[in-house]
Amino acid sequence: MFRLFRHTKQLCCFQMKQTLQKPLWPLPFSALVKQNSFSTDSIQSLQTISPWPKDVGILALEVYFPFQYVEQSELEKYDGVESGKYTIGLGQKQMGFCAAHEDINSLCLTVVQHLVERNNLCWDSIGRLEVGTETIIDKSKAVKTVLMQLFQDSGNTDIEGIDTTNACYGGTASLFNSADWVESSSWDGRYALVVCGDIAVYATGNARPTGGAGAVAMLVGPNAPLTLERGLRGTHMEHVYDFYKPDLASEYPMVDGQLSIQCYFQALDQCYATYRKKIESQWQKAGISKLCTLEDFQFMIFHTPFCKLVQKSFARILLNDFLASHKSDTDSGIYNGLKDFSNVKLEETYFNREVDKAFQKASHELFKQKTQPSLFLSARNGNMYTPSVYGCLTSLLAQYSAKQLAGSRIGVFSYGSGLAASMFSLKVSQNSDPGSPLEKLVSSLSDLEARLGSRKCVSPEKFSEILKVREDTHNSVDHIPHGSKDDLFPGTWYLEQVDEKHRRKYARKPV
């Protein structure tokens, strides 16, 4: 096994030289900055030339999910529910899960290590590190502080950022913060790293099949192949008890399922309305007078508690478009046959089956084109909480070529209970040439299907047994967590020991 600090200094120095001499993505002021330094004077000189770094967004992306999973169809039989309740009703195929020797720290250690290694980055090239998570194992010590151990050999301790928590929204808040840092006077020219990670587990019952686990890491900087479109964020925040975790002695949440779905739809309506106003305002300033609709997004991805909810949400976007257009043609085209719904009120349709059925049918082909490909990972791994919507982004990028994605706009809806939600958009670079940042990003995710196919399938009986051990040992001290290293992907970090003072020690499975 590899201990946490056994990174060879020779390798680190080699990576540093390679990165600084030939960066993976050149910084906009690379000619002004000396190698191995980040000059404030140089940054000030740059700002007199251009007030904004160009095309700030996602440069690289890495995803981690557990090695073990359970089949949802087998779980239906084990739970004694009707066939199709989980597979059709929820739209789920499989569910990944963690044994007790994986925690939020180990998940995040793994995904950060993999992103840095797979992209030949230098640990010195990161100047901000933000973690979005709702999996809290310490009321004071941040996951980010644990990740700082990875930077120890490089000597890089000048890294801003900390953990952000609000249910499944923390990752999006971290992404916004990181992009804002790059576009601020505090930016020193280095990359920002956003980490989203969670372990979603539920007590035995109806909610358990909506669990999952995983982590996503995103490298943020200028000249990105996925650019955050400036000024296009629609946000809705409100005080609601739809899903929350007041019992600090348990991993299990309190959930009001119906209220949570209503809140999700309500937030979607509000965020979409705000986003449309902002993009339509930008268009008007450019001399373009038109309504923003689904047609203006080549792809649309959503936070995914379960896949069926996303299909309903996509249909709801179409409902919003339909009600916003006063001249909808209900005799032909996509709105054909929807005339009877012309006067419905959005707030009265959250659980209206007729509306839901009609708009799911009307949006079916668009859903298959714009959103269904993004559910590839979610259907097979389950809800990852904060990484969920970015797992959908990973799925989308993994199933298309750079040429097919080039120039497209990806709408993103992120939701966190309690509640906090945003809709924003990513603009994909036009350059899909071999060796371009976009081609590199897409190629780095091409192994997603193979990785999912290499996992270990576990029986529902074994799955329940493992989760019971996890429940019984949650917050235990002075013990070695239960779980076999054979049930981990190569290169995965895991929890090796918890001492009598709750201090956690981690090790890495050999690559």
UniProtKB/TrEMBL annotation:
**Annotated catalysed reactions:** acetoacetyl-CoA + acetyl-CoA + H2O = (3S)-3-hydroxy-3-methylglutaryl-CoA + CoA + H(+)
EC number in record = 2.3.3.10
Q: Which GO terms describe its molecular function?
A: hydroxymethylglutaryl-CoA synthase activity; identical protein binding
Record-linked PROSITE patterns = HMG_COA_SYNTHASE
Annotated localization: Mitochondrion
Question: Which InterPro entries does the UniProt record give?
Answer: HMG_CoA_synt_AS (IPR000590), HMG_CoA_synt_C_dom (IPR013746), HMG_CoA_synth_N (IPR013528), HMG_CoA_synthase_euk (IPR010122), Thiolase-like (IPR016039)
What are the residue boundaries of the Hydroxymethylglutaryl-coenzyme A synthase C-terminal domain, all occurrences included?
227-509
Q: Can you tell me which residues form the catalytic site?
A: 134 (proton donor/acceptor), 168 (acyl-thioester intermediate), 303 (proton donor/acceptor)
| Any Pfam family matching the protein | HMG_CoA_synt_C
Cellular component GO terms, alphabetical: mitochondrion
- By its UniProt entry, which Gene3D superfamilies does this protein fall under? 3.40.47.10
Q: Where does CoA bind?
A: 206, 260, 308, 312
- Which keywords describe this protein according to UniProt? Acetylation, Cholesterol biosynthesis, Cholesterol metabolism, Lipid biosynthesis, Lipid metabolism, Mitochondrion, Phosphoprotein, Steroid biosynthesis, Steroid metabolism, Sterol biosynthesis, Sterol metabolism, Transferase, Transit peptide
Q: Where is the Hydroxymethylglutaryl-coenzyme A synthase N-terminal domain?
A: 52-225
Pathway assignment: Metabolic intermediate biosynthesis; (R)-mevalonate biosynthesis; (R)-mevalonate from acetyl-CoA: step 2/3
GO BP term, pick one: acetyl-CoA metabolic process
Q: Which domain of life is it from?
A: Eukaryota
How does the record describe its quaternary structure? Homodimer.
Q: Which family does it belong to?
A: Belongs to the thiolase-like superfamily. HMG-CoA synthase family.
Instruction: Briefly state the protein's biological role.
Output: Catalyzes the condensation of acetyl-CoA with acetoacetyl-CoA to form HMG-CoA.
This protein is called Hydroxymethylglutaryl-CoA synthase
User: What are the leading ranks of the lineage?
Assistant: Eukaryota, Metazoa, Chordata, Craniata, Vertebrata
